[in-house]
Amino acid sequence: MLSTFLIALREGLEAALIVGILVAYLVKTGRTHLLAPLWIGVSLAIVASLGLGGFLSFTSAELTARGEEFFAGTTSFLAVGFVTWMVFWMQRAARGLRDELHGKVDSAVGAGSLAIAVTAFVAVVREGLETALFIYTNFKTVGAASTATVGLILGLGVAIALGYLIYNRSVKINLGKFFQITGTALVVVAAGVLSYGVHEYQELGWLPGADSFIWDVTSWMAPDSIVATVLAGSIGFDTTTSWVQFLIAGVYLAVVLWLYLKPSRVAKKTLISA
User: Fold this and answer.
1) Alpha-carbon distance 26 to 221, whole Å?
2) DSSP single-letter state for residue 239
3) Could you list the residue ranges that cross the membrane (predicted)?
C-alpha cells in the first residue's frame, strides 16, 4: 500500500503541477477559450494511461506461466529504467519546467486548438504511462492487490488535492525538497521491483542462483502475513531472497542513491566534460 501510495502521489503531483502551470498561463494571458482543448488533451492522456494499465493486466492474465514470468520480469526492468530516468529528469528540469511549458503553449497557440490539446496530452501522458507501468510492476511485487489499490487511490487523491491547493496558492510546500524525498523513496521501491524482475528471470533459468538464498524466513514469517505484506508493500521485501537478487538490487540502490543525492558532483563532472 505504501509503495503504490508514494508512486501515485509523486507522479500524480507532477502531472497536477504541469496541468496547473498550463491552465494558469492560459488564464493569465487571456486565452481561456483554449482551456477546453487543453482539458481534452489531459483527458486523453489519462485514458491512454488507463489503457496501458488495462493492456498490461490483460496480457499478463492471458499468458502461460513461463510467458507470464518473462512478461513480468521484462516489464519490471523497463519500469525501473523509466522511474530512474524520471527522478533524475525531474531533478534537472524542475527549475526550468514552467518556462519550458510556457514556451510550448506559445508555440502551439498559433496552430490552433488541436495543437493545444496535443501539447497538454504530451505533457501529461509521459507521467501517466510511467505511472501505469510502475504501478503494474509494483502490484506484482506487492501481491496484495486490495491494499495496493487503496494506496493508489489515496495517492492520486492527495496529489490532486495538493495540486489544486498549490494552484490556488492556498498552500506552499518546498517542491524541491518534496521531490527529493519522494524521489529517494521511489528509488527504494524501484530496487524492490528490480529484485522481483531478477527473481522472474531466475525462474526462467536466464539468471543463476535461484535456490541460493541470502535469507529464507518463511518458517517464521508467512509470505501473506501482515508484517510480510507491509514490508513487501513498502520496500519490496520478499521472505525468500537469493544472493543474486540481493546483490543486483543492492548495487542499483547504492549507485543510484549516491548519484541522486550528490547532484553537485554530477554537475561538476558535466562541466569538466563539456
Assistant:
1) 55
2) S
3) 6-27, 34-58, 70-88, 108-125, 145-166, 178-198, 243-261
Q: What is the pLDDT along the chain (274 residues), one digit of tens a residue?
A: 678 888 889 889 989 999 999 999 999 889 899 999 999 999 999 999 999 999 998 988 888 989 999 999 999 999 999 999 989 988 887 778 788 888 988 888 877 889 999 999 998 998 899 889 988 888 877 655 667 788 888 999 999 999 989 888 777 778 788 888 999 999 999 999 999 999 999 999 999 999 999 999 988 888 777 777 777 766 778 889 999 999 999 999 999 999 999 865 444 444 334 3
- H helix runs in the chain, sequence order: 2-28, 35-62, 65-93, 97-109, 113-142, 145-167, 175-204, 226-235, 243-261, 263-273
Dihedral pair phi/psi, residue 213, rounded to 5°: -90, 140
Q: Would you state the cell numbers that stand for residue 85, as one nine-digit string?
A: 530516468
The backbone torsions φ and ψ at residue 216, rounded to the nearest 5 degrees and listed phi first, read -145, 100
User: Who's near 46: CB < 8 A, 6+ residues apart?
Assistant: 124, 128
C-alpha 63/C-alpha 60 separation (Å) is 6
Could you tell me the pTM of the whole model? Answer: 0.84
* Residues whose CB is less than 8 angstroms from the CB of residue 15 and which lie 6 or more positions away in sequence, other chains included: 124, 127, 128, 159, 163
Sequence ranges of the domains in the chain: 2-273
Separation of first and last alpha carbons in the chain: 43
